[in-house]
Design brief:
This protein has 299 residues and is of the alpha/beta class. It has 7 helices and 9 strands; from the N terminus they run ααβββαβαβαββαβαβ. The chain has a 9-stranded mixed β-sheet with strand order 1-2-4-3-5-6-7-8-9, with helices on both faces. Keywords: Hydrolase, Signal.
Length: 299
């Protein structure tokens, strides 16, 4: 026997069903529209839809120019070179400061400057105050270079000062971890074959991609890159890429896997461009890749 509370006229039931269906469709329409608008209206999206061919090419879709920065005109770091997209129709760009390694000059990894800039970033490759500066000093210098870019450089009008990143090789990579720990407002960090006496980075909240070399004898991955990665909290966005057979000096020659993942990481976290997630999750594979670990971008 039915309970009286569940008995309704058929016409009323039909009416309620139609109203319920209309509500579901309307909600679906709103959700679809909102999702579409969100996908289409990312104000930081720059450049065409990404492909492996675009990321693996020697240059990205943006034409670039460069200018030298004298050490006499800056404070806190040793000058360097700025690379920037020449386009003025795309709005502002995110920016990244990159440090060379111990005893090295920017010229040792300078191929990264135009390569990254051509994907829609302003890049400053720094010279350090001395060739022997340690990672903590290099971290401070990276931040000083970013402050210079945003506040005083001749290209400051091209830069969105809320979208900044750091990277570096060897002690410069260790310096990028120092910078990320010091300034959590950074959008990304990419240490390359990083070296640092500090092995724990539980304070890092900046999305961090660490790239190490399997055959690195100066900063072996088991005592540097791997513990650095493991110590960053699982709640932070992070990835670890180990290159098959690569030595400590892999960033000093043109290296397509390094550039491809580096650009994809910067695009995803500096530009908030989810089109690049396909290159981060599940990530790279093939002969050049020894290992890849990641948390995958979460929301």
């Amino acid at each position: 026997m039915r309970s009286p509370t569940t008995t309704r006229p058929r016409s009323a039931v039909r009416t309620m069903a139609r109203l319920a269906m209309a509500a579901v469709l309307a909600a679906g329409g709103v959700l679809a529209t909102s999702s579409g608008v969100q996908a289409a209206d990312n104000p930081y999206e720059r450049g065409p839809a990404p492909t492996s061919a675009i990321l693996e090419a020697s240059r990205g879709p943006f034409a670039t120019a460069s200018q030298s920065v004298s050490s006499w005109s800056v404070s806190g770091f040793g000058g360097g070179v700025i690379y920037y997209p020449t386009s003025t129709s795309e709005g502002t760009f995110g920016a990244i400061a990159i440090s060379p390694g111990y005893t090295a000059a920017w010229s040792s990894i300078s191929w990264l400057g135009p390569r990254i800039a051509s994907h829609g970033f302003v890049v400053i490759g720094i010279e350090t105050n001395t060739r022997f500066d340690q990672p903590d000093s290099r971290g401070r210098q990276l931040l000083a270079a970013l402050d210079y870019l945003v506040e005083r450089s001749s290209v400051r009008g091209r830069i969105d000062g809320t979208r900044l990143a750091v990277a570096g090789h060897s002690m410069g990579g260790g310096g990028s971890l120092e910078a990320a720990a010091t300034r959590p407002s950074l959008q990304a960090a990419v240490p390359l074959a990083p070296w640092n006496l500090d092995k724990t980075w539980s304070e890092v909240r900046v999305p961090t991609l660490i790239i190490g070399g399997e055959s690195d004898s100066i900063a072996p991955v088991y005592s540097h890159s791997e513990p650095f990665y493991s110590s960053i909290p699982a709640s932070s966005e992070k990835a670890y890429l180990e290159l098959n057979g690569a030595s400590h000096f892999f960033p000093q020659t043109v290296n397509t896997p390094t550039a491809k993942q580096m650009v994809a990481w910067l695009k995803r976290f500096v530009d908030n461009d989810t089109r690049y997630e396909q290159f981060l999750c599940p990530g790279p594979s093939g002969f050049a890749i020894e290992e890849y670990r990641n948390t995958c971008p979460s929301y």
